[in-house]
Amino acid sequence: MTALLAIEHLSIAFGGLQVVQDLSFTVPKGRATALIGPNGAGKTTVFNLVSGVYSPTGGRILLAGRDITALPSRQRIRHGIARSFQNVRLMDHLSVVENLLVGQHATTRGLRDLLVPFRLVPNHRWRREAIDALAEAGLAAYADAGVGGLPYGIRKRVDLVRATLSGASLLMLDEPAAGLNPTETNALRDHLALLRGRGVTLLVVEHDMQFVGEVCEHVVVLDFGQKLAEGTLAQVQRDERVRAAYLGQAA
Amino acid sequence: MTGYQSGLLVILCFNVIAAYAVYLPMAAGQLNLGVAGFMATGAYAAAYLTNEAGWSIGAAVPAGGACAGLLALLVAVPILRTQGIYLALATFALGQVIAAIFLNLDVVGGAAGYPVSAYAGPGAVFAATAAILAAMLLLSRTRFALYLTAIKSDPVVTDLMGVNVRAVQVGALTLGAVIGGLGGGLYGHHFSFVEAQHFNVALSIFTVLYVLLGGVQTVWGPLVGGAFFTLLPEVLRAGGGWRYVLFALLIIGVMALRPQGLVTAGAHWRPRRRAASRAPSRTSGHPGPETRLSTEVSGS
User: Fold this and answer.
1) Do the domain assignments include residue B189?
2) Is A178 inside a domain boundary?
3) What predicted TM-score, i.e. pTM, was given to this entire model?
4) Which of B143, B154, B276 lies nearest to residue A114, judging by beta carbons?
5) Which residues lie within the region annotated Disordered (chain B) (predicted)?
6) Residues A171 and A33 sit within 8 Å (Cβ to Cβ)
7) Number of domains chain B is built from
8) What is the DSSP string of chain A?
9) What is the mean pLDDT of residues A224-233?
10) CB of B111 within 8 Å of any CB in chain A?
11) Confidence at residue A204, expressed as pLDDT on a 0 to 100 scale
């Protein structure tokens, strides 16, 4: 199994606090990998390191064998890394479809695409693509709604659709099922299956173990910024250290 | 049209052009308090080109805009390292420095001012304003305009989407300066005189007020704000000496009632029955987004 993403000896410290320490794991291409661990284990920090929001104090990040550790954050999406956010970060001044148009940026090219007044053209290709992606997630009815007034579950899923529009090969989803009702969680699962069918690789931070079991074949457990265990969900659930650190407390 | 009316319309045009110069960076969340400096640059450069180099107005005014844009491009990189109130102060200082330089520059008349030999009539001012307005309307339908709003909402996420936030911010400030420079160039040629004292901090602050009052959410905001500020004092002339008191009270009232400005953007909300019926369980249980008007103008 080739690795799409490889984290090698990654470390970051904020002041004296070592948040991620000598962390290594790989995300196999075309598979869904879960990153789990108790609150404060460093899961979101790993996302911030991979997406370039933070620069590591040590270690390397490889995407399809290429070292992207020093790549500026804005260039990473063009190399195939897109993410959603734990605390849904949609642009509140824009409508749903406008948020998605921003999400398409990585697929556009040059100054011409930046300056063409495409929103004068009814049903322009870019808008159509955004609405098609919304429709796949069952959200087409919200295309022209302002995001500010939307229910949390819808906002959360629009955030995911926006990430998919960059055409990324690796989607990093930060607690995609948190705060969703059962119906919305089912729709999310269907949506992720659709994306998997297109060969998209997933890296998912999630606390809902049932969701992790259904969606992810591969699980990496973090605690205090270090890898505690790795394997299938069943394997890591049998691990005594994992039970003590995380699952034991949750049970 | 009487002389009074056309004179008033010309002032309105200059105010609206200046408002668009401020609007572009402000759409990305950047407060430019130095727009008068860019206008002065355009005014002096264009006047110099017609006076000394014998250029036509049609060439000199755009060249003045280009000079202002070039200046903005040069200062944008250091200035945009600052944010928020510090950016406002940096642009304020820049405007003061530019005005002070022209005030002491003897080649363009220094403190005595600089007479301009060529004259641009009201028709030319109207045509130029219409062209700038049309360009702004076109620009508002581009990704560039979309990214300005995205940056104002969340610069970190906009960056992660792959947008070069710094380049878009520099572009907005520069393009705004070009528009300010065009306005300045036209101003000098219409009034046949340029003096540094005109391009003072009050001009910059009033222009910011036009934009704030009109609203930064849509491209119409600066037009409405500029018109409000220019025309209302004239309408209130009947109030005699009290008209500026009335005007100030009206401004306070508008800002209190509509802090987002007179013109606000709203998303078009059209439920799609087909999609909704295909996935009823996903949308049921949610009240759905609130209906908002497409473009709402009120209070004026």
Assistant:
1) yes
2) no
3) 0.87
4) B143
5) 273-300
6) no
7) 1
8) --EEEEEEEEEEEETTEEEEEEEEEEEETTSEEEEE-STTSSHHHHHHHHHTSS--SEEEEEETTEE-TTS-HHHHGGGTEEE--TT----TTSBHHHHHHHHGGGG--HHHHHH--GGGSTT-HHHHHHHHHHHHTT-GGGTTSBGGGS-HHHHHHHHHHHHHTTT-SEEEEESTTTT--HHHHHHHHHHHHHHHHTT-EEEEE-S-HHHHHHH-SEEEEEETTEEEEEE-HHHHHH-HHHIIIIIHHH-
9) 92
10) no
11) 96
Q: How far away is chain B from the Cα of A195, in angstroms, using its nearest Cα?
A: 19
Cβ contact, residue pair A120, B141, below 8 Å: yes
- Mutation target among B147, B161, B166, B175 for the A interface, most CBs of A within 10 A: B161
Position B94 in a domain = yes
Q: What is the mean pLDDT of chain B?
A: 87
Longest dimension (CA), chain B: 75
**Crossing angle of the two packed helices B3-27 and B221-235, in degrees rounded to 10:** 140
ipTM of the complex: 0.92
- Nearest Cβ partner of B149 from A51, A91, A154? A91
Side-by-side strand order, sheet with A66-67: A17-28, A3-14, A58-63, A66-67
Other Cβ atoms within 10 Å of B193 Cβ, number:
16
Give the mutation candidate from A74, A136, A188 for the B interface (greatest B CB count, under 10 A).
A74
- Domain residues for A73? 1-77+202-251
Pick the residue from chain A with its C-alpha nearest to B279: A138
In this complex, which of A74, A114, A184 lies closest to B282 when CB atoms are compared? Answer: A184
Q: Check B161 against A120: CB less than 8 A apart.
A: no
For an interface test with B, give the residue of A142, A154, A165 to mutate (most B CBs within 10 A). Answer: A142
Kindly state whether B154 is in contact with chain A, defined as any CB-CB distance less than 8 angstroms: yes
Say whether both A100 and A143 belong to one domain. yes
B233 — pLDDT class (breaks 50, 70, 90): confident
Q: Record the tokens describing residue B288, joined without a space.
A: 């759905």
Q: By CB neighbour count within 10 A (0-12 exposed, 13-18 middle, 19+ buried), where does B85 fall?
A: exposed
> Is B269's CB within 8 Å of A145's CB?
yes
Measured distance CA(A151)–CA(B288) in Å, rounded: 7
Q: Are residues A140 and A157 in the same domain?
A: yes
Domain presence at residue A109: yes
Judge whether B291 lies within some domain. no
How near does any CA of chain A get to the CA of B64, in Å?
Answer: 23
Cβ separation of B143 and A113 shorter than 8 Å?
yes
Interface check for B293 against chain A (CB to CB < 8 A): the answer is no
Of A77, A114, A146, the CB nearest to B142: A114
- Within a domain: residue A163? yes
Distance between CA atoms of B169 and B158, rounded to whole angstroms?
A: 12
Q: Residue A77's closest chain B neighbor by CA?
A: B162
